[in-house]
Amino acid sequence: MIDSICFITDAYPYYDADTRNIFVKRLIRAVADLGISCWVIAPFFPVSKKKPPKKWTDLSPKHRNKIRIFCPRYLSCSNKKIAGFNSVHLTEHFFSEAVMQTVIKENIKPDVFYGHFILPSGLSAAKIGKKLSVPSVFAFGESTLSGIESYGLDAVRALTQEMTAAIAVSSFNQERLIEKALITPERIGVFPNGADETLFYPSNKQKAKESFSLAPSDFAVGYVGAFSARKGMPYLQEIMKKAQNTMVFLCSGKGNLAPHHENCKLCTALSPKDIPRLLCAADVFAFPSENEGCANAVVEALLCGLPVVAWDLPCHRDILNETNALLIPPGDTEGFYQALCALRDDATLRARLSQGAIESSKNLSLTRRAENITAWLDNMIRKES
């Protein structure tokens, strides 16, 4: 098996309230719990007052294995077109240079460089892997290709085509990698996102509802995600108006489209440790997002045994089906609302989909995902060598 991995990512949460790339942190911790030595290089552009240390250590949750994190400072030039030149190339260059300098300075010698997301981390892994003759992989979890297209598909292909492998978070993302010829099909593995089974699981619903000042009889609809147009906030606000006082909504997130309505009993960003409590208080999970790679929030809801109502989109089809969800034609807010009503009024349907969520979530634990990814990567590296 692989003994060591150097993860490259644009963020690794240091403060408890920092939610950026929290799912990346949880995956790396799960990998470290398998006994694999983990380095993390997360270059930091110092724009906020809260700065992570340049070097620090994290511990995996179960076995307390060390994860060594490095946060070198770098210069970001944003992503802007200036006289035909896109500044994202400079940003990626400075990011990659910060990673390379850290690898050399700290004498990091992994079995594989793992870039989380194609830009900038995946391209950085590709450059460093090629220079040091070390296998490199990238994880493709992006919901859109806009950043990659800004950089230039040909320039991205020139680097990704030579990488050992790619990890797609959904079959839909796999298809997009093939369509854009970013890497050959046989080198793509599909691994839907996973959630930490020690945090997300069904628990006492009445107690969870009481913590949000809800009555046991209140039909609660949960939502976790950004309050943005892409995540479907205009749809959710319309659905809230239709529901009036027949449902209550618990929404955790932040953004300029916060769903203020009298039946929205929570409209703020909870800390990551409080999200499981929200999901256990809810009777159903509503997710009107318009595009995703693979939605971590949906995976977490499934582990908590929640039926899901979402648009019928290709990105959901690896994890949602008739056993655990009601899938609605995109944009049909009346159909979405009626699906919530059906789950409110039909306890048998709700129980069936809840049980289906629990069954399907057995393949979506973070531990299993870490095991599957590392075993597959080990096999891909052996083939290449």
How would you describe this protein?
With 385 residues, the chain is of the alpha/beta class. It folds into two domains: 4-194 and 366-384, Glycogen Phosphorylase B (Rossmann fold); 205-361, Rossmann fold (3-Layer(aba) Sandwich), CATH 3.40.50.2000. The protein is built from 13 helices and 16 strands. It has helices at residues 22-33, 88-105, 118-132, 146-151, 153-160, 171-179, 205-211, 233-243, 275-281, 296-303, 333-345, 347-361, 366-384; strands at residues 4-8, 37-41, 55-59, 66-70, 81-82, 85-86, 112-116, 136-140, 165-168, 188-190, 220-224, 248-252, 264-268, 284-287, 308-311, 325-328. An eight-stranded mixed beta sheet has the order 3-4-2-1-7-8-9-10, with helices on both faces. A hairpin with a 6-residue loop joins strand 3 (55-59) and strand 4. Helix 1 packs across helix 13 (366-384) and helix 2 (88-105) crosses helix 3. It is globular. The relative contact order is 0.11. The mean pLDDT is 95.
